[in-house]
Specification:
homodimer; about 375 residues; alpha+beta; Rossmann fold; Dna Ligase, domain 1; D-amino Acid Aminotransferase, Chain A, domain 1; 3 domains; nine-stranded antiparallel beta sheet; five-stranded parallel beta sheet
Chain lengths: ~375, ~375
Amino acid sequence: MNPTIGILGGGQLGLMLLQASIDWNLRIHVLDPDAQASCRHLCTHFQQGSLTDYDTVYQFGQGVDVITIEIEKVNVEALEALQREGKQVFPQPAVIRTIQDKRLQKQFFRDHNLPTADFVLTDDRADVSRQVAQNPDLLPAFHKLGRDGYDGRGVQRVATTADLHKAFDAPGVLEKAVDFEKELAVIVARNERGEVQTFPTVEMVFHPELNLVDYLFAPASISESIDQQAQTIARQTAEAFGIVGLLAVELFLTKEGEVLLNEVAPRPHNSGHHTIRANVTSQFEQHWRAILNLPLGDTTGYQPAAMLNLLGEDGHTGPARYEGLDTVLAMPGVFPFLYGKAITKPFRKMGHITVMDPDLDTLRQKVAAVQGAIRVVSE
Amino acid sequence: MNPTIGILGGGQLGLMLLQASIDWNLRIHVLDPDAQASCRHLCTHFQQGSLTDYDTVYQFGQGVDVITIEIEKVNVEALEALQREGKQVFPQPAVIRTIQDKRLQKQFFRDHNLPTADFVLTDDRADVSRQVAQNPDLLPAFHKLGRDGYDGRGVQRVATTADLHKAFDAPGVLEKAVDFEKELAVIVARNERGEVQTFPTVEMVFHPELNLVDYLFAPASISESIDQQAQTIARQTAEAFGIVGLLAVELFLTKEGEVLLNEVAPRPHNSGHHTIRANVTSQFEQHWRAILNLPLGDTTGYQPAAMLNLLGEDGHTGPARYEGLDTVLAMPGVFPFLYGKAITKPFRKMGHITVMDPDLDTLRQKVAAVQGAIRVVSE
């Protein structure tokens, strides 16, 4: 277990990967464009540089044996070159390439008979209008940018033809809106020897406006048959990609009890942060196990858990201050995790809080108490 | 929660403190004499230097707001000077001074009516003989060096007068050997506001020759009344010291069902490593909570756990290689933690392995399987 590993990206996911790597004393280099990235002091070697520049990524990769990512917006051509030269690149560049582009991703689901909402690929804004005219049943829909959408950016709701002007004037995918009961997620790990292991299905509650996870519950309150559907689709998706590493699979549970693929990410994911505290193996340790071709770990949860994102307060921009931290630290089974970002901005992800309790009602009460107690403001 | 913290010592305990600090994004400087110390890449600032040199410790302390330790063999005078100048030094220098010297430590127990084995303080080897002549009931006994004993060094068994030549020719304590049933340990945390919290009592099995923990079980298999005694003594001891931080309390359970203090350490301890995986709050997070005057965390264990020290194989000195790691990683609920020491030596602590299982018999079987599967050898 002596390879030198490189991570593209040194934000909060990198931070949690580094924390998990300490158990096995892994040697890790980190590349991030931000000289003040969260990871800068917690790795064997930190390099400031662009993740999307071919030469930077290629040269960074020359210094390590195994390359992985904590963000999918990276230069895939450089990763392909490194892979050709014998470096281990996990997840594989081909998987990243497909997932990077929501058009290729949706098409991949369709090509592999993975259940997903109906959609059409669109070239530009005019094309969206043309296709809606031909197929009015697509509305209400979401128009998603093919590339570079992230955390709610790059998605527009097109409810009626009156909204068509909001569509992106760039290649995208127009996806029929799912009238869902719940949003679910399953994190899957797969290693090189083909072992596959899923985490328990979680239930995500999105912020009504921000299109990012407000909080989640693990395990999801769903019937065993729905759970089986979700687990099966997640596993089939990971196997279809043949991914080595983690695949975070976001799903819709429709009002008719059908489970549909929403989208996937080839890396640790916000929907698995609670596993650091609540599960035998965390998603971060599982990522290392997967990409180092080690046996995958037991994913059992110890207790029901919730995870809240700690977002920067609206109207506050500047050096971050955490109000109410002492209060939440006094609550049993409440674990704040701060990402170390110096500056808070409205709705910026500044940390998360895991809440655990054996009793579901008490868990919900604790979540409400935490939400009422803590705020990230500027100094 | 923005102080800069300094840790004296950058070995495995420092490593685990750093790992726990990542959740709260603490800014940490580390001082260690070894330029290759485990912590060197995992802190905000690493400084190579002596822990026992006044100037080095004093100057290191000037650069931080809060100073703590991961080893008690440090320059206490420098810590006292830093404390006088308004730095927060936890555990307090006075506590470190008492505990550093086994003579002062034992006398402290006696002065505070804390139950402990009978003993006499001895000036030198001749004094040991004199005192045994006056009080032959002290034998069989252990002669312990007052200062600088560590991990089994600095302890000699004096079973009969024929062993008197083995006694140290330096200030020490001659302590009547306890005919014990079990060795127990309780880790206590106390913060500045006087909150005290104990971890569940564990049962340690020492290596028959090496005088270091071979493995431990948590919780200990003892009656509730014995457990209460152990917990009460541990709490009283922490309160007697008025310590801010962790106090690891080692205890004997005698064959008569009496609980006696053996010795204490003012820091995270080998007897609490399993808490990283097995307890709601780990001893390392609890240390941060205690010295930063935050509310202490819930210490409940999720499942019965065992901890095995991973010692360098006898006869092997050189670059370390871990045989059987893949095998133990495939066992559910088995968590190796490697300290990143480049060189293995016979019986050197190279890591530890936490083993968990809801069922005690299965737990014991897993421990045996792990012991049979893994070895640290030289390359």
